[in-house]
Predict the structure.
Amino acid sequence: MASHGIRDRVAIVGMGCTPFIENWGKGLDDLMIDAANDAYASAGVSKDDIDAYWFGTAQSAMSGIPLARALQLQNKPVTRVENYCATGSEALRQAAYAVASGAYDLVMVVGAEKVKDTGYQGLNAFPIANDGTARTLTAAAMFSMIVPAYGHKFGVDDDTMRSVLTHIAAKNHYNGARNSRAQFRKEISAEQIEKAPKMAGTLGVFDCAGVADGSAAAIVCRAEDAHKYTDKPIYVKALSFVAGNGSGLIDPAYDYTTFPEIAACAVDAYAQAGVTNAREQVAMAEVHDCFTPTELVLMEDLQFSERGTAWQEVLDGVFDLDGELPVNPDGGLKSFGHPVGASGLRMMFEAYLQLRGEAPEERTISSLAAGRKLALTHNLGGYPGEMVSFISLLGAELD
Amino acid sequence: MGVEAARLALRSSNSSNDTSPDSLIFGTALPSYADRSNATAIHAALRLPAGVPAFDMGSSVGSATAALRLGLTSGGSKLVVLSDMRSGLAGSADEAAGGDAAAAFVLGEGDAVVAEYLGGASITEEFLDRWRAPGEIRSKVWDDKFSEVTYVKAGRSAYASALTAAGLEASQVDLVAVAAPTARIGSALAGKLGATKVVDDLTTTVGATGAAQPGLVLANALEQVEPGQVIALVVCADGAEVIFLRATDAIARYTPARSIASQLDGGAPLAYGRFLSWRGMINVEPPRRPEPARPSGTAAARSGDWKFGFVGSRDTTDGMVFMPPSRVSFDGTRTDEMEPAPMADVVGTIATFTVDRLAYSPSPPIVFAVVDFDGGGRLPIELTDTDADEVAIGGRVEMTFRRLFTADGIHNYFWKGKLIRG
């Protein structure tokens, strides 16, 4: 029993990513077509060159047919994937394993979500018949419970906690202001963040990720074939996934200052990639900043900071764009919004740009030039106490 | 409210008698359902055995007294639950004078009896006092003075007949408790009965509580009666009903699980706008999010002990408590090695909390906490009757049975937490 991983056996050779916006003018099909065509072009392949497709969408469509119909695929296998907010990442994970198994030579992953056709605010899961006893809290409220718990455990007073969360929000908006694909492209001041209307607990509007429509796509092949398609392939070093068993919701030992699923997922991912010191080896991370306290806790669960110290390191700017370990250099969910099926691939798209040296100059990170070689992407879905976790590690060089 | 009153009644009586009643009788003028039973939800929340029948008495104010009278005169042990919510148009006298309440009584025989039934009498009158079509929120009244005259006459007549039936002289009655449609009718009648002491009918504090009021005034009398004293319960509803009870020596040992006075002290102001929205008198802008879907009837039937009885499961090997119940142990190694873990009367401590200003609720914003129960078990759950600024890590919480929402005509009952104050 082991998680062997597929380090350096699979490569991403092309990607596409649409702008993530409230896209009243484009439907799901349009978004998928745009992302897929950009990906084909970037790898220099045609539709027919792709052997199989993986289609990640949480609730914009069902089955593989919507992708096959939108792209007019001719007798191709299309697998629809759903795994909460990690849907896009999970689709790539499945596609990568199919390539690594030898079943296919060249595959495409398309993640897409059309959120803004519902007329509702926020993300809303479709109802599954139940006995009426399940909580109906918003995600903002569930994640806001981290704030008092973290402050209480580590002796961080309310004002300091507020400053930490504000720093995270301001940082991600600063980065997003430098990204043409982001939904929100303005820097937001600390004062604006702290005076925003409250949504849940102490979380205001700017502590919460936005909502957007979007699509992203990736083309994956075996590592030895990568240079057929590009001079700058991105190699998969690790793909790790944990589906939580909901223990935090029933176990009083869980204290809402960590996400155990993610801590376990990180251990597995680092083992697959041979990472022994994440803080020193990871050049950048795209993490699931659905809410500002989420990003705070992730810095510890991903082993970037010691327990109880991430709040200080956030304030010290360690994770800023020009910091030692930039986190969410593309602006994150905060700036992009969260089209569920696409977000994981959007994160990989930023890693792909940064590792290939293709990120615009104003948001190019310096940690790669300083010798670090790995980019991490992280998705979670669910809530504190009950979540799924995905982590990938990617690199531009074979080990 | 009926469930809560019944829980308190059972808790008060359980010190000397912990067997289930032979039957449950629920009386209300405002049933939540027609066609199907309302009493069964109370039955389920109290975890009464399936063999204990649950009867509805409705849907008049007088049905409450009928439940009490039947319970007292039919022998065996009964749990009688009386509950009502009084409605009226905005600005009406009924709205201002009305109140919501529930009362419950465990009736039976033996040493635990705190008051014994001596006898009673009824006067039945078909006359237009007040009326309301099912589903309407406004009761209409023909003429207050006509009602008063009719009730005073009926009440005096029933009182005289009841004294005879119980073999009592008027001078032997120590406490008179009167429940009437209005405070004025109640005091007019009480003044004509020659009683030594009239029990506060709580109309100035709780309000006129309709079908619950006979229970409320009787409970108030029982909380102040001395051993050997005689209580008269006089109810004005489509005639009059009089019941005489004598307090036994057991009353000296009787302590209500939660006294009326302590509940009145625990009250908090409620903004009128919020009251109107709770009553459905004004529509409040809902969040722009989907409203809750109706609960599944079949799923609810499978999880009845959890949904209504708040019973989790406890691992027979390691003692881990699961809420909701689980078939599989925490470490995943064992299946179906669980025993029931009743949690409704277990209190807990807040581990962390939040206030949700976005989620749908009949009473936004939702105050929500992760509660760790004494002796094991955790549940993240909504808090009720709790202001956002009162919540803190370490706060103590008890459980209360509530309606979470209504969808497709289905009332979704479940439990909420409630901050323990003081």
